[in-house]
Amino acid sequence: MGRFDHRSVLVTGGAGGQGASHIRAFHAEGADVVIAGINEDRGRALADELGARALHVRLDVTDENSWSAAVQASEEHFGPLSVLVNNAGVQNPAAPIETTDRRTWDRILAINLTGAFLGIKAAAPSLRRNGRGVIVNIASTSGVGGTAMYAPYVASKWAVRGLTKTAALELGRDHIRVNAIHPGVIATPFITEPAAGSDTPISDFYSAEPFAIPRLGEPADITRALLFLTSDEASFATGSEFVIDGGLLLGPALKHEAA
Ligand SMILES: NC(=O)c1ccc[n+]([C@@H]2O[C@H](COP(=O)([O-])OP(=O)(O)OC[C@H]3O[C@@H](n4cnc5c(N)ncnc54)[C@H](O)[C@@H]3O)[C@@H](O)[C@H]2O)c1
After folding, report:
1. I need a surface site. Which of 68, 110, 113, 118 has the fewest CB within 10 A?
2. How far apart are the C-alpha atoms of 148 and 202, rounded to whole Å?
3. What's the 173 CA to ligand 1 centre distance in angstroms?
């Protein structure tokens, strides 16, 4: 028996680095999984690999009609949703605010922030029909502090925190919990491949060496926290923020010899 038997889980960006890890783990724990995203080849391949209890749907999180169709397809296959994970996200090419163009700003906000807003809007009625539900928004440690050269991304992730808390207040009485996870730097294409409009991946200039846990995070580090938060074990947690960053937000851990 799995923790997610008879529950349907929709993960946006479900074929991406972290998304695929989440999908596999929910599926292994008994869930019906919906791999929702714009990467159709990888989404379909993952659904084929998992077989029964897995569905791929094309979803552009910035498009309200695309959201309605994705939730409808999920319901047709698996019934009302139990869990929504707003995981899809993109990074802006590194640039100071003064040289960041308006189109870049709008694109990052549209995917990272408006995408999560539209997701909550589209999924809430389905979660309500289910009788109870959980939403997790994947924000970032960049939504807790500032990061030079990444204003659109940082602003989008700060805003997702406010959206999370407001949704938790609005939906709590309907037995729907809403929380946020703040990953640190996780080894996925997000950091190993250049962002659209950029030549340099973040992994070329980031080092985990100064931090308390001096390694990159793995998708599984986030998946384990996500499964806890979306399970009944976290039944009293809502509107909260969970930092999974190996100590990044703590700042550098001085070595004994240097202290
Ligand atoms: N990797 C990190 O270091 C890191 C750190 C903190 C937060 N995050 C966040 O974690 C989440 C997952 O990122 P990841 O590391 O798996 O990166 P990733 O690039 O592997 O996955 C991102 C996914 O989002 C999808 N996506 C992009 N635009 C979309 C759209 N318009 N509609 C639907 N899907 C879309 C992509 O196709 C991809 O599958 C993102 O929200 C990201 O901001 C990542």
Report:
1. 68
2. 13
3. 30
